[in-house]
Amino acid sequence: MNPAMTRAEREEASAFGHAEAPPTATVGYGPHPDQVVDLFLPESRAGGGAPPAGAAARVIADAAPPAPGAAPPVPLVVLFHGGAWRAPYDRRHLSPLAAYLAGHGLAVASVEYRRGPLADGPAASAAGPGQPRAGRWPETFDDIAAALDELPALVRGLAAGPAGPSAGGSSDPAAGRVRWADVDADRPVLVGHSAGGHAVLWAAARHRLPVGSRWRLPAPPALRGVVGLAAIADFGTARALGVCSHAVDQLLAPQHPPATPGPGPAEHAALLAHRLACTDPSALVPSGVPTTLVQGGADIDVPPAVAEAFVAAAARAGQRVRLVRVEGVGHFPPIDPATTTARTVLAEITRLT
Hints:
Helices cover 32% and strands 15% of the residues. The chain has 353 residues and is of the alpha/beta class.
């Protein structure tokens, strides 16, 4: 690795330097090419006991413990990748982390979703000509919701159909291998990095959405918990800091056809307020779902202030959020299986299962 690289550049190069890990199966949750989920089935069940956390990890705030209950034989982790909701970044860069988690006895579903296209025409004013725009409204949120709504049935379909054993699940329980039927897809742990961290915090709070929202759930989702990794958790702070080249502003900005006037200032402000109320995790607390944030103390892409603002908003609403700050690391070590920070992430996931 080039010694002239900065720490942040070295961390990014390491995280993106792993070979892509092939999934056990890929299933679709909709007709669009981006509406797919890669599934990673572990070869054996977890041995029990949480792995040790990285030595630099420090718990800043703690959450209430998960509700007691019998743990299923194979917990499911649903992963959402980051990339500031921009098209060049897809789920493949999270496949090494997915394989790492599967290697520790967890079933993993890595979700793809629609991100922003290259900015042409109406989008160019927000992102610049030829630059990737952050997100699609409302398609990005449609996909996050649809993937989670459809995933239990998709896993059950693998268990019931001929694709189960042929996709990597042994049909013989005595063989010691995990089968699709062993996976508890009805109460997963949601894990997301950066923009994917926003996705999982938002998904856990869909029952808190305004009445009439197309994504609102009538009751809290059945989740073991949520782990956000360098999550874009508070839109107000992220917008103020211009996180990821003002990605939140692009995600929420109205798009209009070419040669068509956009909304006036008053209409734009009202539309932005509505979209913030529907999408900002800090506006949707308390979710009632056990929530952990893992945050690099030296993150310059999504600074710690973003996580701290979410924790403060949750506390004001009566929800305790567990904040694990890993000193001396930046944005990418939480998703890099070669780092001790990934061990911290595994430990935080395991404590929810």
